[in-house]
Write a structure and sequence with these properties.
The structure is a single chain. The protein contains five helices and 18 strands. With 410 residues, the chain is mostly beta strands. The protein has a single domain, classed as Beta Barrel (Porin). The strands form three sheets. A 14-stranded antiparallel β-barrel has the order 1-2-3-4-5-6-7-8-9-14-15-16-17-18. Strands 10-12 form a two-stranded antiparallel sheet. It starts with 6 loop residues before the first helix and ends with a strand.
């Protein structure tokens, strides 16, 4: 499918629609792999270890009892386009008494776009893609708990030629890290717990370093409750919560002068410069925090603004009319922060180790995602096939998204 969209805008449409977030770069890293996870509402951070563990929670790799390889293919966001393809290849390799190594490769093919100039004259076509190679390791701390770490190389190729008067290319290569924890039978029997902070790293820029966006640093926390465990019947309840640890601040009038900025970082008037600070040297212009600050400030940035917000980004706080911005700082509460959390819940039933049925729900209030999911799995010997399906309203980008996974133990 050919599109008259510049690569960066198309990227935003693709990943923003899927995750309800647009304040970070490389959001494709948040696309959940695995048809089994897709069937249970994408709740998988505390799931049983497999070759997908290096993505979800590398700490669970420590309990992988056999070597395994997996592959998943998905036509992604069929409600937006018919030529976006998501591919995932993963492997887990156990070293007795040491731990388990895991690795995975993500390749998101964004399809073909039509290149245009400023006047929308066609200049030919080009293809865009995003990829990430991750290597991880999980090791046990005790017979029931483990920790894990990942290092990943991220490459995004939006365009190999600059658009319009811009210089450089729409290409970036970056590095990121994941850290995680996993425990079995904690805090009580038949209850597994998982925690992971993923995509920790420096901001990502393509052409202008000053316009760099933070990586999609994400907190995943969840559990798996083994409700029924008999020889032939297993039923479990899984739940994940996801919060993007990205702190993006809008333009804020902190000193009450009804203007955004106008001074340099020393508090001196800066009429000829960017003027992003107030007279006290406090940053008022829209900005995002580096990851080491965002780990903390992302919990308050959506409600503790501390001043009037420049909603239309014109640098002036409007005081009259329907577009008045004066006093809007009081309109934000901690509920706004809670609304940024995505909830994933699901159930999985296994008959012996051969056949599985799954159902779940993806709930993202901010992204307006309320999608039920369904799935099934057939495993025999070292081989397994899983299918996951996302249902939704007609016209929603995620509606009719299907995942197909193949597993093989060795």
């Amino acid at each position: 499918m050919k599109r008259f969209l510049i690569p960066a805008l198309w990227c935003l449409l693709v990943v923003g629609a899927a995750n309800g977030q647009s304040s970070a770069s490389a959001i494709f890293l948040l696309i959940a792999p695995g048809a089994a996870a897709g069937g249970t509402g994408e709740a998988h951070v505390a799931a049983s270890p497999d070759a997908y563990s290096s993505y979800w929670n590398p700490a669970t790799l420590a309990f992988l009892s056999q070597n395994e390889v997996v592959y998943q293919y998905s036509p992604w966001l069929p409600g937006l386009a018919n030529d976006i393809r998501y591919n995932f290849f993963g492997i887990g390799y156990n070293l007795p008494d040491i731990g388990t190594f895991g690795a995975h490769l993500i390749y998101l093919d964004l399809g073909e776009q039509i290149r245009t100039d400023e006047n929308r004259n066609e200049l030919g076509t080009f293809s865009s893609y995003m990829a990430a190679l991750t290597v991880g390791f999980g090791t046990q701390m005790s017979p029931t708990s483990s920790v894990g770490v990942n290092v990943k190389l991220i490459h995004q190729n939006l365009s190999d030629i600059a658009t319009g008067a811009e210089g450089g290319k729409g290409v970036s290569t970056d590095i990121a890290f994941d850290f995680s924890y996993y425990s079995r039978n904690y805090p009580f029997r038949k209850f597994d717990f998982g925690l992971a902070v993923t995509n920790i790293g420096p901001k990502i820029s393509f052409i202008d370093v000053d316009q760099a966006d933070p990586q999609p640093t994400n907190l995943k926390m969840g559990f798996k409750w083994h409700l029924i465990e008999t020889e032939f019947n297993k039923l479990s309840l899984v739940y994940d919560m996801n919060k993007l640890l990205v702190a993006s601040h809008p333009g804020i009038d902190l000193d009450g002068n009804l203007r955004i900025g106008g001074y340099d970082k020393n508090g001196d008037p800066d009429p000829g410069g960017d003027g992003e600070y107030n007279s006290k040297g406090k940053l008022e212009a829209a900005h995002s925090d580096p990851w080491y600050l965002a780990l903390f400030t992302s919990w308050v940035d959506d409600w503790r603004f501390g001043g009037d917000v420049d909603i239309d980004s014109d640098g002036i706080i409007q005081t009259e009319g329907e577009d008045a911005e004066l006093g809007n700082a009081k309109d934000f509460t901690f509920q706004d922060e809670l609304d940024t959390i995505t909830h994933n819940v699901g159930m999985e039933y296994w008959y012996s180790s051969y056949f599985a049925i799954r159902a779940g729900l993806i709930y993202d209030k901010l992204g307006k995602i309320y999608n039920p999911t369904f799935g099934t799995g057939i495993h025999y010997g070292p081989y397994g096939f899983d299918f996951g399906y996302i249902y939704g309203e007609q016209g929603h980008p995620l509606t009719n998204t299907m995942r197909f996974s193949l597993n093989m133990a060795f």
